[in-house]
Write a structure and sequence with these properties.
The structure holds 3 protein chains of 3 kinds. By secondary structure, chain A is mainly alpha-helical. Chain A is built from 8 helices and 1 strand; from the N terminus they run ααβαααααα. In chain A, helix 3 packs parallel to helix 8, helix 5 packs antiparallel against helix 8 and helix 7 packs antiparallel against helix 8. Chain C is 35% helix and 27% strand. Chain C has helices at 7-40, 61-83, 87-91, 203-219, and strands at 99-106, 109-113, 119-121, 123-127, 131-138, 143-147, 152-156, 162-167, 176-183, 195-201. In chain C, the strands form 2 sheets. Chain C has a 5-stranded mixed β-sheet. In chain C, strand 1 and strand 2 form a beta hairpin. Classes of the chains: A mainly alpha, B mainly alpha, C alpha+beta. The interface between B and C is large, with 103 and 82 residues.
Chain lengths: 257, 535, 224
């Protein structure tokens, strides 16, 4: 059966699906029933994700080798990139639904606080620039590896990571505590609820993206990327750009209007 | 599925006689909710996806789905989320008791304080994640992993139905996830989305039904695909008009995203909304009926064998037409003002969802059982069980159409209301239908005791999963031939008729070039969608 | 004594009969065709086993277009006809010319508010032959005011006022008709028993009743 798989070190089945699913389930169950259980679930989930990444870094789990395929009209999209795009489509819909919900409640409300009075537009602007630069950084990383420049790849990835962390620190460490001190909290009414839920979900996606970028960094150091084999950088870059674009919508919707 | 079915039986027991006290208010509402959630989200949707998991790769010539580990993850997530949902009844306060539609503000902490409700919300969220992963997987597989010769036009109809099912799932589940996220944050973090009056019930209605309507088509589409396959094989004819069939399928899928507010006619929306959505709802019935007619016309001038799979498909056509016309009646707002929230609606959706999907997917199991297990199920028992199941199904659900005055989700009724005899009839039907459905599956399982069949294609089916003839063969068959079509020598020049000419992939005729597949990604375009020349 | 069927209900019944007949004819055609094909084209024993070549099917766009056009014409005419019957736009009368009843639904009863501050719980009395406008809202969760014999209903949404109109049938002298009201939206444990009764009496009887309510209200402290 080896000829069915790409690499010689085949692994026909993997435990990561079970671990990841189990971790998620325990996490959710624990959130409702017993918080320490939730922490346990998060740990299991993390272990599962870690094994997934480790397998991938070591090139262990390989895809089935498919025969010559019909691919029209998508010949130019690799399988993984197509998967990422479809995933992004669903993400667009979830953020879109939440943004529409926000619009719905805002227009149903008789009064809504003026954006600039409640939100710190300066910090929001800084965050916007930070995130945009991080997108640029990951493009730089991708272009570098396309040219075979591992050093550029590392610089780009580290910059992306650092800027992403900066985004989260500014938002979670500086901006949000200030809002809470001012009484603008998640339960202080619809403006607070919508703001914190939407930007909070976005922040979770940023954090997830940081985990992915971390994986890229580790894999770079293990020598996993070459001039010709670097699709993961592009795919995760696509996700990162998406996260950035969502912020481009959230920022004006909350901070400016 | 057994648990959800058991819940259904419990509900009918309670409603059998007036003023019954088998299940009292809160417990009954929990049973209703769990029956609905489990059946729609954990049984019917995944049953179609499960059959698809096996059959779709066979039909398109792939060895597995595009992302096998994600496939496994989505299965385990589905299983665990189902266990989570069922476990909610054991928590203090019980499980969710708001009906499967989880209307706001009933679903907030203030009105449904039990943790079981929160856990149920998270379980559904987990299932939404699982289905989204599935849809990414299937769509990528069908788009990319087809064998040579399987062009889009040649893809079998079941796989086409899965294409539309999964595309709809991709678009429908995120709004549900969004609503569930908002609800979770209401319940965990104290936000006020559904307890405020600006958001409240209408916000939930919009989000939920934007998901809910495509969801019911997600449930039904695989069954329609199965019926197409079964009819083609047992009438020994191709589908009446494959192009138009696919276009009608696409039309139904596309329009299904634009009809959701017909679930909200009574919520006091303004007149233009009523007009718009009644037009779109009626618009969707046109291609849908076209689909049904195309299926029926496939039988025209065929050579029809009536076996169990075929009978289930005929039953499914009956239920989808009957359920469909009651749906068309509900599309008129004036009629819906009286239908909405009563047992008429319950009858309608059980006919389309339970009837069509269950019968269709049972037909699929009976039809593909030789492919999956190399054994034929027992026909005599199959037909017998079918007759019992079909008759009892109608005894169970047809009375609902006469219970226009009976609201949904009430746990009992007075003798004076006059509902008693119809309810009792329905309960008798339920007691027969449940075991019949179980027996139908048991019949399949019992066939495993028999020895394997020598003939891998006992139905002489011509579709790709049976013949594995992905490139397209040119074997000529005479009317008296008893050989199965096998992969004839690929260098026979195909007998080209006008309609066939595009579809045989010979040297130089294919759209894709004959090259080894490049996995490194180096030839992918930098701009994610810009077409790069193949060098 | 048989009660008069309200106008909305009889119109509803007529439209339903029309639409259902057309629908049942469609059902009969489809299922009839199916059964006919099954019987006529069944595989009779004794014929040689026929294994067809796999062929893709013809386009047949023309038949489908014809069928679609016929259905569209029928459906569009039906829906346009139905719009004249839909409760809200059918009446849309002037609120000042109709009797306005404020309905507040809560877990688990209906509270009816009349002009002059009179309120009743669980039942309401209305004059015959009057256009009544129900101004419906909810105090807690979503409920649904379902006037069964009138075949109209409207949701009671917290924070919103939804409006529905009916015309009560004429009542004279001592006639009093009883109609049932139920809640059609699951609203908690008491949903099953959340119902109310509507009494339709003659105009004079209604005036007398209203006057007695006002006077008894002025002598009690609770206003409902």
């Amino acid at each position: 059966m080896t000829e069915n798989y790409e690499s010689s070190e085949e692994k026909k089945s993997s435990l990561t699906p079970l671990i990841i699913a189990g971790g998620l389930a325990i996490l959710f169950f624990g959130l409702v029933v017993y918080i320490p259980l939730a922490i346990g679930g998060a740990v299991v989930l993390a272990i599962g994700v870690f094994i997934l990444f480790r397998d991938s870094v070591e090139g262990k789990f390989a895809d089935l080798k498919e025969s010559v395929e019909e691919k029209w009209p998508l010949e130019f999209l690799s399988k993984r990139k197509l998967g990422v795009w479809i995933f992004l489509l669903s993400e667009i819909l979830i953020f879109g639904s939440l943004i529409i919900a926000y619009t719905f409640v805002r227009f149903s409300s008789i009064s809504w606080p003026v954006a600039t009075q409640v939100h710190n537009v300066t910090l929001g602007m800084i965050n916007t620039i930070v995130l945009l630069t991080s997108s640029l950084a990951i493009i730089f990383a991708f272009v570098s590896i396309r040219m075979g420049n591992i050093k550029g790849l590392k610089i780009g990835l580290f910059s992306t990571f650092g800027l992403g962390v900066a985004f989260l620190v500014i938002k979670l460490g500086i901006e949000w505590p200030a809002y809470y001190r001012n009484g603008f909290t998640i339960s202080s009414g619809l403006p607070g609820s919508t703001y914190f839920v939407l930007t909070g979900l976005h922040a979770c996606h940023v954090a997830g993206g940081l985990v992915a970028v971390g994986y890229l960094i580790v894999r770079t150091y293990q020598g996993g990327f070459t001039k010709t084999n670097h699709s993961a950088v592009e795919n995760i870059g696509l996700y990162w750009h998406f996260v950035d674009i969502v912020w481009m919508f959230l920022f004006p919707l909350f901070y400016l209007i | 599925m057994a648990i959800a079915g058991m819940f259904g039986e419990m509900m009918r027991t309670q409603l059998a006689v007036p003023m019954n006290n088998f299940l009292l208010a809160n417990t009954y509402e929990q049973t209703v909710t769990l029956h609905g959630l489990l059946m729609i989200l954990w049984v019917l949707t995944p049953l179609g996806a499960g059959i698809a998991n096996y059959i779709v790769p066979l039909q398109i010539g792939a060895k597995d789905l595009a992302f096998p580990r994600m496939n496994a993850t989505s299965y385990w997530t589905y299983l665990f989320s189902g266990i989570m949902l069922i476990s909610t009844v054991f928590l203090p306060g019980g499980g969710p008791n708001t009906g499967w539609t989880l209307y706001a503000p009933l679903n907030t902490i203030q009105f449904t304080p039990q943790p079981g409700m929160t856990l149920a919300v998270l379980a559904i969220l987990l299932l939404a994640l699982s289905i989204t992963m599935s849809s990414i997987n299937f769509l990528t597989t069908i788009a990319r992993n087809r064998a040579k010769g399987v062009t889009w036009r040649r893809i079998p109809l079941f796989t086409w139905s899965i294409v539309f099912t999964m595309a709809l799932a991709l678009f429908a589940f995120p709004p549900l996830a969004a609503g569930l996220l908002l609800l979770s944050s209401d319940r965990f973090l104290g936000t006020v989305f559904f307890s405020s009056t600006q958001g409240g019930g209408i916000l939930w209605d919009e989000l939920f039904w934007f998901f809910g309507h495509p969801e019911v088509y997600i449930v039904v589409f695989p069954a329609l695909g199965v019926i197409a396959e079964v009819f083609q094989t047992f009438a020994k004819k191709p589908i009446f008009s494959k192009n138009v069939f696919i276009v009608e399928f696409a039309a139904v899928a596309f329009l299904s995203m634009g009809v959701w507010m017909h679930h909200m006619y009574t919520t006091g929306v303004n007149y233009s909304v009523l007009q718009t959505f009644s037009f779109t709802t009626l618009a969707i019935s046109v291609p849908f009926e076209g689909l049904v007619l195309a299926l029926v016309l496939t039988l025209y001038k065929g050579k029809i064998t009536l076996n169990t799979a075929m009978l289930y498909c005929l039953a499914a056509i009956f239920t989808v037409t009957l359920g469909g016309i009651t749906g068309v009646l509900q599309a008129f707002p004036v009629l819906d003002y009286a239908f909405n929230g009563t047992y008429w609606i319950v009858g309608h959706f059980h006919y389309v969802m339970a009837g069509t999907t269950l019968f269709g997917l049972l037909a699929g199991l009976y039809y593909w059982w030789p492919k999956i297990t190399k054994r034929k199920p027992n026909e005599t028992f199959g037909v017998l069980i079918f007759v019992v199941a079909f008759i009892s199904f109608n005894i169970l659900y047809f009375p609902y159409f006469f219970l226009l005055g009976m609201p949904r989700r009430i746990f009992t009724y007075t003798l004076a209301s006059g509902f008693a005899s119809l309810n009792l009839t329905a309960t008798i039907g339920a007691y027969i239908f449940g075991p019949a459905a179980a027996l139908a599956v048991l019949n399949l399982v019992l066939s495993l005791r028999k020895p394997a069949l020598p003939n891998a294609n006992p139905w002489s089916a011509q579709e790709l999963e049976w013949t594995q003839n992905y490139r397209g063969s040119t074997a000529t068959q005479t009317a008296n031939s008893t050989e199965n079509v096998v992969n004839a020598a690929a260098d026979d020049p195909p007998k080209e008729t006008l309609e066939d000419r595009w579809y045989w992939c010979r040297e130089g005729n294919c759209k894709t070039a004959e090259k080894p597949v490049d996995y490194s990604g180096k030839n992918d375009s930098q701009m994610p969608l810009r077409r790069k020349s193949i060098d | 004594m048989s009660q008069p069927i309200p106008v909305t209900a009889s119109d509803w019944n007529h439209f339903f009969d029309l639409a259902a007949t057309i629908a049942l004819i469609a059902l009969a055609i489809v299922i009839g065709a199916m059964i006919f094909f099954i019987v006529k084209y069944r595989n009779r024993k004794g014929q040689p086993e026929f294994i067809p070549e796999f062929r893709l099917s013809k386009g047949r766009a023309r038949e489908n277009v014809i069928f679609a056009s016929i259905s569209i014409i029928i459906l569009v005419s039906l829906v346009v006809a139905s719009f004249t019957l839909t409760p809200n736009p059918r009446f849309s009368p002037d609120p000042s010319n109709s009797l306005v009843i404020d309905v507040t639904a809560y877990q688990w009863a209906f509270n009816f508010g009349y002009p002059d501050g009179v309120t009743t719980l669980d039942n309401m009395t209305l004059p015959g032959n009057t256009v009544v406008m129900f101004n419906v809202t909810s105090a807690d969760v979503m409920h649904n005011l379902y006037l069964i014999q009138f075949k109209v209903s409207i949701e009671a949404v917290p924070g919103r006022y939804n409006i529905i109109w009916v015309t009560t049938p004429a009542a004279t002298g001592n006639q009093a008709y009883t109609y049932n009201i139920e809640c059609k939206e699951l609203c908690g444990d008491g949903h099953t028993f959340m119902d109310a009764t509507m009494y339709v009496v003659s105009q004079t009887a209604y005036n007398q009743w209203l006057a007695s309510q006002i006077s008894s209200n002025s002598t009690t402290t609770s206003g409902g």
